[in-house]
Amino acid sequence: MKLTTRTRYGTRLMVELAKNYEKGPLQLNEIAKRQDLPLKYLEQIVMPLREAGLIKSVRGVKGGHMLARPPEDISVFDILKVTEGDALTPCTEDDPNCDRFPHCETKDVWIKINKIISEELKKISLNKLIEKGS
């Protein structure tokens, strides 16, 4: 199983914001430097995270980005849902667009795996990630 760079970088971005929670906004260039990530890529990742209500942006000289909620209220699943979607395969979506779905022999295993992974990722908050790094 692979996660895209978008998810890995998005999670690292969110960890930096969690470390800075209640200290004010962070600029993307600072996050890029701290995490050794490409600034242009972070600029693309920020937009969907903001649209999902996970981060908020502050304009101005001392502006930047910050978490929209406390780190303990944002899970790795929340980030993954924004960056990848919440379905492991199209079979596990609420309305699968597959002609084979009604008689597919393998759909149950994909649904089960998706459920297990989702439940486990929901248990891992940003707070837990930054506590482990301390």
TrEMBL record:
GO molecular function terms listed in the Swiss-Prot or TrEMBL record: DNA binding; DNA-binding transcription factor activity
GO cellular component terms, semicolon-separated: cytosol
Top-rank lineage group of the source organism: Bacteria
Family annotation (Gene3D superfamilies): Winged helix-like DNA-binding domain superfamily/Winged helix DNA-binding domain
Keywords: DNA-binding
Lipid metabolism keyword on record: no
Ranges that cross the membrane: none
InterPro entries assigned: Tscrpt_reg_Rrf2, WH-like_DNA-bd_sf, WH_DNA-bd_sf
Alphabetical list of PANTHER family matching this protein: HTH-TYPE TRANSCRIPTIONAL REGULATOR ISCR, WINGED HELIX-TURN-HELIX TRANSCRIPTIONAL REGULATOR, RRF2 FAMILY
NCBIfam families assigned to the protein according to its UniProt record, in alphabetical order: rrf2_super
The name this protein goes by in its record: Iron-sulfur cluster regulator IscR
Organism: Dissulfuribacter thermophilus
